[in-house]
């Protein structure tokens, strides 16, 4: 069995409990050495074989998996963040399907959320942005037609850019073409949740200069949008004038009183999203 595991954004204690358990049980770990915190490998057993995939091709990675499977080993393919985001796992899974090798995926905490935590930010603020666009700038690797950064920027949503730190002059031009004002708040979060994490707040028009002055050219997430500003509308979820399936408008004080007195009905009801 091949276990694709999301390593999380960087901090060792942000790998999931399941991911840590699979690492401890693995006979072979193939990890994305240029991105994954190597301290995670300390969770493996002393007899576990370790392979760094940074210099390997797809064929070499899948070949190593196939060899391990023939030995009856348990293999962990350790990807940074969550493997579903820019993890190139589909092509690996397709190759495993062709070979009749079973696999599963353990999700991980994306650096996207590690960056939000570092900024103390919420991507979806009422009256500001209720949508998040996760994308990247076009460089040596093209993007599909219709998914250029300029076209994405036209929606006015919160923007999270992966794999774009070395292309920030182009990013600025694309944002401008998409109608994003140069004064729009932005941030560059370098190695979110790692011990050497660094956060740089700037604007859409100063991204390139900010990165250049800080000496940052990779391993960073770029965030752009008014969610980084100070203005937003209050959420309706806890607003006393808003009714939903578990509370009528004007019942806020009574509900608080009931919960304080130990009302099981209120204490165990799930919160319904509203904004």
Short structural description:
This protein is an alpha/beta fold and 275 residues long. The chain has helices at residues 17-25, 58-70, 89-99, 111-119, 149-153, 168-177, 207-214, 252-260, 264-267; strands spanning 2-6, 28-31, 49-52, 75-79, 103-106, 132-136, 158-162, 185-190, 198-203, 220-224.
How does this model look, in words?
- The chain has 275 residues and is of the alpha/beta class.
- It contains 9 helices and 10 strands.
- The chain has a 5-stranded parallel β-sheet with strand order 3-2-4-1-5, sandwiched between helices. Strands 6-7-10-8-9 form a 5-stranded mixed β-sheet, with helices on both faces.
- The protein starts with a strand and ends in an 8-residue tail after the last helix.
Primary descriptors:
single chain; 275 residues; alpha/beta; five-stranded parallel beta sheet; disordered C terminus
How many individual β-strands?
10
Total DSSP helices? 9
Work out the radius of gyration: 22 Å
Provide the β-strand percentage band. 15-25%
Helix proportion range: 25-40%
Structural class: alpha/beta
Major sheet description: 5 strands, parallel
Question: Could you tell me the mean pLDDT?
Answer: 90
Question: What's the SSE pattern?
Answer: EHEEHEHEHEHEHEEHEHH
Shape: globular
* Quaternary structure type: single chain
Uncertain stretches of 5 or more adjacent residues: 259-275
Distance between the termini: 43 Å
The neighbouring-strand order within the major sheet is 3-2-4-1-5
